[in-house]
Structure to design on (502 residues):
């Protein structure tokens, strides 16, 4: 059974409709990416799944249960975790404190020590900087903290919005590498990303979103080189 | 818009072959950040120019420089041969340059018609209220809002507000119209109708520059496309030419070599 399903999911901001009926199926233990040009609704989709925006229409099913109308904090307690675009760290707190805050959901508290070990394994650089204020880190290191904080929340589904945004190529590589390792460890991940090549390279399954709808989906090997991908980004 | 063809009136230079707009080596910095770097292109009269690029490419900043919200740090903008960069926005409005905004802000408590009248009064000809009425009626007809003329603007839906935004700009009787994301938030039917309207405006002699994220639409409506990325112009040409340009494809989709390297390292 799919871990997360959306059916005809429709939403937007105020009067502006952004999503026009999105059907999505995420399998347990699979790294799925959602790619598409800017403005096609990727972030809106994550925010709607997470419950930060109320759906106008359609359903969100999590582990077979209808969670469409649950609030974001209720979804968080079920294990839906969002690493937001732009990281949103507590910049005046240390790396360690940011990570500990991630372990706040009840389901995560008992596993905090084990998860902390896990994220320091994944990002040794964060171990070196655990007493440093998060705001003094580089953009890539802050992104590591954001992902690590998501893991501290003991996610059943880890959703990441724009992993590579504004990062240097070197740090982009290490983050994508870490993501692939998380996928190998059995995490269920939904990655939203503009860089289609990198996203397809690390993912097990891919969706192309265009104008608020799923344009194409399938294993990355089938998606790569499909003319529809370029058309979705460039219009022809 | 059968009688008021704003682009084809007295002040238009007759038979001149020069471009209507010249963007000449424009650079704009915000503190340390280079938002626009040495941008140059010419726009001939009666064309639709599509201005595209990923988020943060500098598209709206370029609009802001063209219509006088910002003065460029280097370079200049010429409109009908006259330097307009560094002048105020009302100066470019007087010369015949109008603009719509991404986030529409009609005067909600005024009627649709009154909103268009305001556009006419502060436009190229500085019309008096009595003269502005007929101009407003014509542009509302042109954008398909005539049946809603008496409604308060605040009561319109999104698609109608976008049309009102265009009507206000058109009421100023511009030669050049800058459209900032007029398709955002429209459903496919509304989008097709809006593209039809955009073409009709051009066919009445108004030159257009459009910023748009809906690529299928912008590629179908534009005669010429300019692509910005990180403040630089990385390509220009026909829609087909830019869509096949390697730099453009990489700006939108990323570089395939990055992914190859990732595979080697993982």
């Amino acid at each position: 059974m799919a871990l997360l399903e959306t059916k005809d999911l429709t939403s937007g901001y105020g009067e502006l409709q952004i999503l026009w009926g999105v059907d999505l199926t995420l399998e347990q233990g699979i790294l799925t990416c959602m790619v598409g040009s800017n403005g096609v609704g990727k972030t809106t989709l994550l925010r709607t799944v997470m419950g930060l925006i109320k759906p106008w229409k359609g359903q969100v099913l999590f582990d077979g249960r209808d969670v469409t109308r649950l609030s974001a904090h209720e979804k968080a307690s079920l294990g839906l975790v969002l690493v937001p675009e732009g990281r949103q760290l507590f910049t005046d707190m240390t790396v360690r404190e940011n990570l500990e805050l991630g372990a706040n959901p009840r389901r995560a508290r008992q596993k905090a020590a084990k998860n902390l070990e896990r994220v320091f394994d994944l990002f040794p650089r964060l171990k070196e900087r655990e007493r440093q204020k998060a705001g003094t880190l580089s953009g890539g290191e802050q992104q590591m903290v954001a992902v690590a904080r998501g893991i501290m929340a003991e996610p059943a589904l880890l959703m990441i919005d724009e992993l590579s945004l504004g990062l240097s190529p070197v740090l982009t590589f290490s983050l994508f590498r870490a993501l692939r390792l998380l996928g190998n460890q059995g995490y269920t991940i939904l990655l939203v990303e503009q860089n289609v090549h990198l996203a397809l390279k690390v993912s097990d399954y891919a969706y192309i979103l265009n104008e608020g709808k799923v344009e194409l989906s399938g294993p990355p090997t089938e998606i790569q080189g499909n003319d529809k991908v370029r058309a979705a980004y460039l219009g022809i | 818009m059968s009688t008021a063809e704003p682009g084809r009136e007295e002040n238009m230079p007759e038979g001149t072959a020069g471009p209507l707009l010249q963007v000449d080596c424009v650079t704009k910095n915000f503190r340390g950040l280079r938002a626009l770097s040495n941008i140059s292109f010419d726009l001939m009269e009666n064309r639709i120019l599509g201005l595209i690029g990923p988020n943060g490419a500098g598209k709206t900043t370029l609009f802001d420089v063209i219509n006088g919200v910002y003065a460029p740090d280097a370079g200049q903008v010429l409109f009908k041969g006259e330097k307009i960069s560094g002048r105020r926005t009302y100066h470019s409005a007087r010369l015949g340059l109008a603009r719509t905004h991404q986030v529409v802000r009609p005067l909600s408590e005024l009627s649709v018609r009154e909103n268009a009248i305001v556009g006419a009064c502060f436009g190229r000809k500085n019309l008096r209220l009595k003269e502005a009425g007929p101009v407003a009626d014509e542009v509302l007809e042109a954008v398909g809002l005539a049946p809603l003329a008496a409604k308060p603007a605040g009561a319109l839906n999104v698609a109608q507000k976008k049309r009102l935004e265009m009507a206000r700009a058109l009421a100023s009787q511009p030669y050049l119209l800058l459209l900032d994301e007029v398709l955002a938030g429209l459903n496919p039917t509304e989008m097709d109708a809006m593209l039809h309207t955009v073409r009709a405006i051009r066919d009445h002699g108004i030159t257009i520059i459009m910023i748009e994220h809906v690529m299928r639409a912008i590629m179908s409506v534009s005669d010429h496309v300019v692509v910005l990325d990180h403040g630089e112009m990385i390509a220009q040409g026909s829609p087909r030419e830019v869509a096949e340009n390697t730099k453009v494809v990489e700006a939108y989709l990323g570089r395939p070599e990055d992914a190859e390297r990732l595979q080697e390292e993982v």
